[in-house]
Amino acid sequence: MKAIVYTKYGPPDVLQLKEVAKPVPKDNEVLIKIHTTVVGPAECAARRGDPLMIRFITGLIRPKHPILGAELAGEIEAIGKDVKRFKEGDQVFGSAAPNGGTYAEYISLLEGGALAIKPADMTYEEAAAVCDGALTALYFLRKGNIQSGQKVLINGASGSVGSAAVQLAKHFGAEVTGVCSTTNLEMVKSLGADKVIDYTKEDFTKSGQTYDIIWDMFAKSSFSRCKSLLTQKGIYLTTAPSPASLLQMLWTSRMSSKKVKWGPSALLPANEKTEDLIFINKLFEAGKIKPVIDRRYPLEQIAEAHEYVEKGHKKGNVAITVT
Asked: What's the pLDDT score for residue 239?
């Protein structure tokens, strides 16, 4: 089968198209023919091996798992003899994190892995994209203990996770302020944001507003700059922790009513991810969440997709067509 392989950390050109052995499912596994996967900042970070802390998951010196990719949507081609939850022909979507392997035509995953049946009216692209954005967004919003009536600011509201976070925060009953660039203001509004801030014209940390949750997607700001904007028991979330923010997380957990929170969403237990996928299914079918697709690339052009994502200007998700 075709797969994108990398054997060392580095720029996008370390990703090489190769022929590798097609996996054979074990008794408790399903073989999935992958239709669509995605490229996001997490895959780019894993490819670079930067920040260094990611190497504790991906491999200290070189990649432990030579095929990248976490999210997938596809069709079950074969099942192990002990599999009861799925059957051949089922259309599924899910996550292969933390080991990855979705930059390939096929993957074998445990029956009890983070997999769910894809809604019939959800395309493969939408299914892979909703895994990339909504799973992470749901994890962090729950970590922030989001409640109805709260004020939530999302710095980086136009990306794959940010666009899902806006929709999910609205579903939970929050008043949402999205921070993004000029070109993405209307898109973020269309997702349900109550207010939008153009970061090229306004510094949200000087707005004088207060929030119950500030989610700083890519650590473009800092807890120190945002602290005065948090309510007495406000929470600062970051998806890209620095050594400083990790120290602040430890300090605020004991010494402050205002908290810094982070967690490796990729390491969430598979059964909890499956429950979240089913929850997201219901929201999609109810019209409460819809992934945004920015660009589409074939598997053979995945290096170009990585280059585009690393520019930091994508709107929503970048989908990769595998088959």
From this structure: 81
Residue 220 — pLDDT band, cuts 50, 70, 90? confident
8 Å CB contact between 86 and 76:
yes
- Measured distance CA(220)–CA(156) in Å, rounded: 9
Residue percentage of the chain with pLDDT more than 90: 78
Q: How far apart are CA 183 and CA 242, in angstroms?
A: 28
The CB density around residue 163, as the number of other CB atoms within 10 Å, is 33
How would residue 263 be classed by pLDDT, with cut points 50, 70 and 90? confident
Do β-strands 29-39 and 195-198 pair in parallel, antiparallel, or remain unpaired? Answer: unpaired
* Torsions phi, psi for 56 (to 5 deg): -70, -20
**Distance (Å, whole) CA 61 – CA 56:** 10
- The total number of structural domains that make up the chain: 2
Q: In degrees rounded to 5, what are phi and psi of residue 116?
A: -150, 160
DSSP conformation letters of 244-289: HHHHHHHHHHHH-SSEEE---GGGS-HHHHHHHHHHHHHHHHTTS-
pTM of the full structure? 0.91
Adjacent-strand bridge partners of 188:
none
Question: 3-class SS at 25?
Answer: coil
Q: Exposed/middle/buried for 202, CB within 10 Å: 0-12, 13-18, 19+?
A: exposed
Q: Give the DSSP H or E segment for 303.
A: helix 302-310
Q: Say if residue 224 is in the same domain as residue 259.
A: yes
Per-residue pLDDT of 13-67, as tens digits, reads: 999 999 999 999 999 999 999 999 999 998 999 999 988 878 988 999 999 999 9
Q: Are residues 141 and 179 in the same domain?
A: yes
CATH of the domain at 150: 3.40.50.720
